[in-house]
Design brief:
An eight-stranded mixed sheet has the order 1-2-4-3-5-6-7-8, sandwiched between helices. It contains seven helices and eight strands, in the order E-E-E-H-E-H-H-E-H-E-H-E-H-E-H. Helix 1 crosses helix 7. With 231 residues, the protein is of the alpha/beta class. It has one domain: Alpha/Beta hydrolase fold, catalytic domain (Rossmann fold, 3-Layer(aba) Sandwich). The N and C termini lie far apart (41 Å). GO terms for molecular function: hydrolase activity. It comes from Streptomyces griseofuscus. This is Hydrolase.
Length: 231
């Protein structure tokens, strides 16, 4: 297992991240934080740890530079700048494609809050690289027209007691053209403060990723069988 702090350089920023990958990883889960959160998010780190036990690599990345984070702490404007956050995620997807330990490995985008909108936008821009999108109590509605352009399967996980966010996710799900599912965790609140509720998020995310990889493997096997018959 490789675990290291990384600096992801792109055209407009250098972003700090924590990368953990196994050899080989089934996929790399790239976390898109939102609403003033960062790679130190306790909830996302908990989910990341659970996914690693299932053979997935993880990249927890600050989507804002240190200077931007200080500005956002005062004005709270960058956290709602979906084009900026999506641009940073696309840059991170491209960065993963260039690294020796993650080159050729599918990417799963895991979004929370406004990070969900950024994840969906980035998935629409990199359909060939994104295996799936998972959202925890996110704001998919803020992705705008990108919702209809997403090709990767999307899982929306929402707390049953988070009524307004649940409604927004239901509305967004109706606009998605890609395969999708809405998973409601009963009695969970917006922050998923109950560890049992957060464990359900991790389990649902793992199942979603497992199913996507299984579907790809089955399709590849069918193609090999067809090729064999042609010969």
């Amino acid at each position: 297992m490789i675990s290291e702090m990384v600096l992801v350089r792109m055209d407009d920023a250098a972003l700090h991240g924590d990368l953990v990958v196994q050899a080989p990883s089934r996929a790399v889960v790239l976390f898109a934080h939102g609403n003033g959160s960062s790679r130190h998010s306790t909830r996302n780190r908990t989910v990341a740890a659970e996914l690693r036990t299932a053979g997935y690599g993880t990249l927890l990345l600050d989507l804002l530079s240190e200077r931007e984070e200080r500005h956002d702490a005062r004005n709270a404007d960058h956290r709602f700048d979906i084009p900026l956050l999506a641009h940073r995620l696309v840059g991170a997807i491209d960065w993963l494609a260039e690294q020796p330990d993650t080159r050729g490995t599918p990417v799963v985008l895991f979004g929370a809050s406004t990070g969900t909108a950024a994840a969906l936008t980035a998935a629409a821009e990199r359909p060939e690289r994104v295996l799936a999108v998972v959202s925890r109590d996110g704001r998919p509605d803020l992705a705008g027209d990108a919702l209809e352009q997403v090709q990767a399967p999307v899982l929306l996980v929402v707390g049953g007691q988070d009524h307004e966010i649940l409604r927004l996710n239901q509305d967004a799900a109706r606009r998605l053209r890609a395969p999708h599912a809405l998973h409601v965790v009963p009695d969970a609140t917006h922050l998923f403060e109950d560890p049992r509720a957060l464990a359900q998020v991790s389990a649902a995310a793992r199942r979603w990723c497992d199913e996507r990889l299984r579907a790809i493997a089955e399709e590849e096997e069918r193609e090999r069988d067809l090729e064999t018959h042609r010969r």
